[in-house]
Write a structure and sequence with these properties.
Length: 127
């Protein structure tokens, strides 16, 4: 009976940490999506006025994405905002760290779980 109880505790810990990891990944994905959409609105207005082409201003896109991420109640481990060389898309990658709960007592928690979410967006002209 004791062995069965320990086995159930182990599987419960695995299930709990798995769902916590999925919840963190979904949260990071939602923030990355929002940040990518915000960054995609950072078009270069001077370039648009001169040529009529819609391209992203890398500095403005990065600033908009980081402002949105800072506004969220989230402490990401790492944030990467990159604009494609052609200026048509922006990519936002957010990493978070998940420390093991119940399983942390059974295994060494020297390297926590890293969860990453990436989103990509581009500006669209809607007349």
């Amino acid at each position: 009976m004791l062995g069965l109880s320990l086995l159930l505790l182990l599987f419960g810990g695995i299930a709990l940490d798995y769902w916590r990891g999925l919840a963190l990944q979904r949260e990071l994905a939602a923030v990355a999506d929002s940040a990518a959409i915000a960054a995609a609105s950072g078009i270069s207005e001077t370039h648009y006025r001169l040529t009529g082409d819609i391209v992203l201003d890398p500095d403005r896109a990065q600033r908009l994405a980081l402002e949105l991420i800072d506004f969220q109640d989230l402490a990401p481990n790492a944030v990467t905002v990159s604009v494609a060389p052609d200026g048509l898309t922006v990519s936002v990658t957010i990493e978070g760290v998940l420390h093991l709960g119940l399983l942390g007592a059974l295994v060494r928690d020297e390297t926590p779980l890293t969860v990453r979410a990436t989103a990509r967006a581009g500006p669209r002209f809607v007349p």
